[in-house]
Amino acid sequence: MDFFEPEIETSVPEQLRELQSKRLSKVVNYVYEKVPFYREKFDQQGIEPEAVDSIEQISSLPLTEKDDFRDNYPYGLFATDLRDVVRVHASSGTTGQPTVVGYTKNDIKLWSHTAARTLVCGGACPDDIIQVAYGYGLFTGGLGMHYGGEELGATVIPISSGNSRKQLQIINDFGTTLICCTPTYALQLLETASEEGIDFHDLPLKAGFFGAEPWSDSMRKSIEKRMNLDALDIYGLSEIIGPGVSSECLAKDGLHVFEDHFYPEIIDPQTGEALPEDEKGELVVTCFTKETLPLIRYRTRDITRLWREKCDCGRTLVKMERVSGRTDDMLIVRGVNVFPSQIESVLLDIEETEPHYQIIVEREGTLDELEIKVEVSREIFSDEVKELQALKDKIARAVSETLNLRAKISLVEPRSLKRHQGKAQRVIDRR
Ligand code: DLL
Questions:
Q1: Ligand 1 centre and the CA of 234: distance in Å?
Q2: Ligand 1: centre distance to CA 264 (Å)
Q3: Overall number of domains in the chain
Q4: CA 407 to centroid of ligand 1, rounded, Å
Q5: What is the pLDDT of residues 306-322, one digit of tens each?
Q6: What is the distance between the terminal CA atoms of the chain, rounded to a whole angstrom?
Q7: Domain holding 391: CATH number?
C-alpha cells in the first residue's frame, strides 16, 4: 500500500470536492440513522439528510462541541454497537470527565493509514526505525504513531515517554532514525543528553514528528539546531482520530490536512459563523469516513488559518497554519489577548534564555499582573546582579514591544521549573 496518494493528495480541488460531497452526503445520512443526538439536532433545525448532497452545504449543518461529549458520556455519540468497537481512547479534559472515543476495526485501519501518511509526508519510508516516545495508554499519541509506523512497514520501537537516559541509549544502539514525541519531551531529551555528554550530531536521527501541543517556530529552530534533525509539526485530536489529521512535509510551510477524510473549516469562535479561507479563527473538523465516531463539524477550540496553494512537495491539499493556541488557552491580561506560544516566541528569540518557562497571571486589586519565569543557563545565572538586571530589562522590553504588555520577568536557575513528559502545563492563572 502506498501512503503517498497522488490521486488524492495532488488532485485538483474540484475533483476533491466531488469526493467530499459524496462523503458528506453519506455521513450525514449515516449519523441521522445511527446517533439519536444527531437525529434530534437535525430534526430541531429542519435539516433533511437526503437533501445534503454538496460540500458547499456543510456550513448549514449544526456544530458539535466538547460539551456534547460530556452530555453523552461515555458512549452516547457512538454510531456503532459497542460489540463492534475494538478500542477506546480518552483525552483527559482539564475539567471533569474524560472525552471517550471509540474505533471499529475499520476505524483502526483508517487511523493506521492516516498516521502512515503523516510519516510519509515527513519523508519516512519502510527502512526507517521509529522510536515512539509519545505516551501509550488512553492518550492517542503512542498507539496512533505506533500503528502508523507498522502500517508503513517501518521498524517501530514502542518505548513510550519517560526514562530519557534509556531513550538516548536506544536511539544510539538501535539506530533510531525517526522519533515521535511532544516538543516538550524533545527538550527533556536534549537536557538529559547534555548532562550525559551526548551530542545529537553523533546520533542517527533524521527527523522528529512533534505535536500534541502548541509550539512556536522559534522552538522548532532551536530544536532542529540542537538535535540535528528536521523537526516536523503533526496535528490531531482524539475526538477526530488522534495524530494523523494534518502534518508538515519537509517544506515546513503549513500542515497538509488530510481533507479526503477530515474536512476542515474555520469559524469565528464568538459567533460560530464560517470564515473565508486565509482568515484566522477556530478550526472545525468533520470526519467523513469513521464508523464509530463520525463527528459533524466538531469545534476543536484550536486557533489556526487555512489556505490553498500547491506545496513544493507537490501536494495540493489545503494547508493549515501551526496552531497558535486554543480558544480556552488565550489569556486576557489587562484587556490584551495573548497566547502562551507568543510569549514562547519572544523568549526563544533571546539567546541567553533556555526554552523552559512558566507564565503566571494574578490579580492584584483590580489589575492583572503577568509574571514570566524563565530559566537561564548556569553561566548567566552566576553573572553579576547588574548583568542579570540588564537581561531582565531586555526580555521585558521584547515582551512589551511584541505583545504590548508589561510583564514582571523572573530569571530562575536551570532545571528549577517543573518538567513534563507529555504535554507541558505552562500557564498558571490565579485570577
Ligand atoms: O494530542 C493527538 C496527537 C498526538 C496529536 C500526537 C499529535 C501528536 P488530544 O490529547 O485529544 O490528542 O489533544 C488534542 O492537542 O485539540 C490541540 O489543542 C493540541 N494539539 C495537538 N497537536 C497539536 C499541534 C492529541 N501540532 C489537542 N500543535 C488539540 C498545537 C496541538 N496543538
A1: 8
A2: 15
A3: 2
A4: 28
A5: 999 999 999 999 999 99
A6: 53
A7: 3.30.300.30
